[in-house]
TrEMBL record:
Name under which the protein is recorded: Integral membrane protein
InterPro entries to which the protein is assigned, alphabetical: AB_hydrolase_fold (IPR029058)
Family annotation (SUPFAM superfamilies): alpha/beta-Hydrolases (SSF53474)
Top-rank taxon: Bacteria
Transmembrane segments: 119-143, 172-192, 245-265, 271-293, 300-318, 338-364, 371-392, 398-416, 428-452, 493-511, 583-603, 615-639
Keyword Membrane attached: yes
Keywords from the UniProt entry: Membrane, Transmembrane, Transmembrane helix
Amino acid sequence: MTTASTGHEEPARRVAAGLGRRPDGLSGVVEIRLHGVGGTSPQSLLDDLAPMQVSGDRIAGFYRTADREGRHVEAYSWGGLTSGSAWRVLWLLLLPFAMANMAARMFPPWLPGRPRRFAVFRWAAGLASFGLTLNLVLLAAAIPVDYVAYQCGGVPECARWPAWLLPPERPGVRILVGALVPLLVIAVLYLLAHTSQNRYDQVKPPAYDTGVPPRETGLREGEFPGLSDPAFWDDVEHTRTLTRLHVAGAVALVAALVAWTSHAVRPLPEPWAAIGVAVPLAVIGLCALALIGRRKAGSWALLAVAGAAMALSAVLAVGQPPGDPFGAGPHELPGLQVFMNGVYGGVLGALFLVPVTLAAAAWTRADWPGVAARAVLVPVGFAAGVALLSVWETDYRWIWTGLGLGVAVGAFAVLTSGDGRLGGRFRWGAPFVVLGLAVAALNTFMLATLLLVAEWLGTLRPCHDPHRGGCLDVPEPVTAETPIAVFPIIRNVIPYLIVVPVLLLLCFLLYQGVRWWSSGVKGGPGVARHYRERFAVPDGPLKRWWASTVDERPVPEWHRRLAESWPARVARARRLARVPRDLDLLLTALMAVGGMVLAWVQWRVWWHDDLPSNANWLTSLCAGVAMLLPFVLVGLLRLGWKDERNRRLIGVLWDVATFWPRHCHPLAPPSYAERAVPELQRRLWWLHDNGGVPLLAAHSQGSVIAAAALAQPCSRPRDDRVTLVTFGSPLRTLYAWGFPAYFDDELFRRLAHGPGVQVARWRNFWCDTDYIGGPVRDDVDEQLPDPPDCRFLYGQPPPAIGAHTGFWEDPRLHRRITELASGFPSPPGAGNGS
C-alpha cells in the first residue's frame, strides 16, 4: 500500500549546488537522526558541509549524506519551526498563553479513568485559559482607554495628539478611540492564530490516507487514547472553533467596557445603555459555556453578535452629549474600577475552579479519608497564612512573612514526597500551579507597562474611581507635568509581584547551592572509588604516559590537586542533573504565597477599605524595577532578532513549551509537533514502501517527537520494522514528570513490547550527569558512564563531563548504533557501566 507516500517524491534539491551527493537508494537500513532543542543544523547532524535535501522545505526537511558503514544516513532538521526566523522571537509575548496550553495537559494519570470528572476538568482548564485572554484584553484596553484617551486626552497640556482625534469635550469619543487599540491587538492575535494554523497544522497524519476514520481528540466512550489517537496531531477545526470563541469573548469585553464607562461618565439613554452592557456580557457567558462542546456553528454566531455589540457601543459612545461632569482634574475613568473588579473576579474564579475540580475528581470511596484530610488541611493552612499576614502587617515585614510561608511550602513538599527523585511526578496540582503562574506573568508585565505609560504621560498620583471618593488626599510635589491618576492598589501590588518571587528564587538557589556543594564533599569519594575499580592505568611502557584522576600512587603536586577536585566535580554534576526535577518546589511555593498575599490584599480592601502599608522606598524601588521589565523584554527580542545564536537559545524554551497542540488556548504560539510528527510518520511510511528499514537515532526533544510518531498504530504500516535509539531523552524525567497521563509506563511498555505500537528494537542511552535526559525502562536502558574514563595523557586536560550535550561526540554511542543497524545487537545491558 503506497497511498501514504503520495506527494513525497525525492526532489534531490541541493543545499550547496555542485557539492551534494545523490542518494544511492532507499532500500536497506536508513538511519534518521533527530536533533534536540535549539535547532541543530543538518550540516552538524550529518557532519557534512553540503547534505542534500530529499524532502520537506527550508523550514523543516530531511537531508541525506553519503552512506556510512553499510547504511543510508539522513537527518530530520525541524529547528526552523521554532528558531529559524528572526520574527519568531515575537512569540515570547505569548508565553502566558503557551503556559496555559501546557497546563491543560498536566493532569494526573488517573483522571481520564473518570470520564465525567475529566470532562469537567477539561472545561475548567479551558475556562481558565479563556479568562487569561480576557485578562490580557482588559489590561490592553485600560492603558489606551483610561490613561491615554480619557485622562491625557482631556487635558490640552498633556495631549500629544490632534484635537480632532481625541476631542477634549467628547469623553465618549475619546473612550471609543482608545478602544481601537485593544481591538487591533485582538485582530493581530486572530491573524497570527489563523496564519499559523494554515502553515503548521495542515500536514495530515498518514492515517487519513489509509481510510481509518480519525477519532475525536481526547475522551471517547470512556476511553482516553492519548498520543495513540490518530487525530491527536490534526485537530485544526477544533482549534479554529476555539479561536473564534476567544476572539468573540475578547471583542465583547471591549464592547462592554466602552458602554459601561461611557455610561459612568454621562448616563446613556435607556434601555440602550442596559442593552449595550448586557448583550456583550451575555456573549462572554455563552462563549464560556460553549467551551464544553465542540460545535462549530455557534462560534460564528457568537462572533457576529460580539461584532454587533461593539458597533452598538460605538454608536452609544459617539452619540453621547458633550461635556464631562467630573471635569478635567486627575481622576480615573469612571466605572473602570468596578469593571476591572468584575473581570478579575471572573478570571480568578475560573482559575481556582481548576483545583476544585481536581480535588472533586480525586474523591473515591477507597481514598476519601486522605482526600478529605487534604481538603481540610489545605484551606486551613491557607487561612492561617492569610491570618499571619494580617497580624504582622507593618511596612515591609509581610515580605519576610511571605518568604517564610514559601520556604515552609517547599520544606513540606520535600519531607512528604522526596527530593525530586528521578521518575517522579510534579508533586502538587500541576495544572493549577502553571495556570496561576501564567496569570501572574501576564499581570506583572502588563501592570509594568501600565505604570510605564502613565509615567511617560505625566506624574503618577494614587486615585480611586470618582464614584468611590476620587483622588486620595496625598500631598504631591508641584510639577509642570500633568498628574495621571492610577488606582492605589496597582502601585501597592507591585512589590508583591516583584520582591516575593525574587526572594523565593534566591532561597531556592541557596538550597540547591548548599546541596550541590555538599554533594561534592559527600559524593566525591564514592565517585573516585567507582572509577578506580573500573578504569585502572594500563601497565607496561604506556604507564608513564598515562595519568588518572583517581590514582592513589605518588604523583606530582599539580596532579594531586587535580585528582582531589575531579571526583567532586563529577559528583556535583550528578547533583546538578537532579535540579530540574525540583522546580516544582519553587513553582508551588510561588503559587501558594501568591494566593495567600492576594487573598490578604483583597481582604484588606473589601472588608477594611484599607490597603496594606509598604515602605515608600520599597514601593518606589519595585515600581521602578517593574517599569524596566518592558525594556528588558524588548532587549531580549532585539538580541534574538539580530543574532541567530540568540534566536536558537530562545528557541530552546519554545521547543518544550510549544510541543502540545493548541487544543486549550488557540492563541498560543503554534505547535511545531503538529507538523513534525506527521512529517516524520510520512517519511517512515515512504521508506517502508520503498524497501527501507528505518533506524531512528533521536536526541533530547527529538526522542519525544519520535515516540509520539511511533505511538500511533494507525499511522504506521502493520509490518514496519523500526529500530528506535534514544539518548539524552526527557521522556520520563520531564514529560512523564509533568504530563503523566500521556507519557506513562503503559506507553513505554507498548513501545517496547507491544501490542499495537511495538518497535523492532529500542535502546535508550543515558548518563547520570544529564540534567534533561535519563532512564526510561529497565529493559531498554543502557547507562553510559560520564565522563567515560578517568584516565588522560600527561599534558592534556582531564576527561570532560559531557552531560546532556556530549552524546553526539561519544564513540561508544556510535558503535552501539552501528551494532543495532547491522542486525546483531549486543545483549541487553551489555553497555551498562562500560
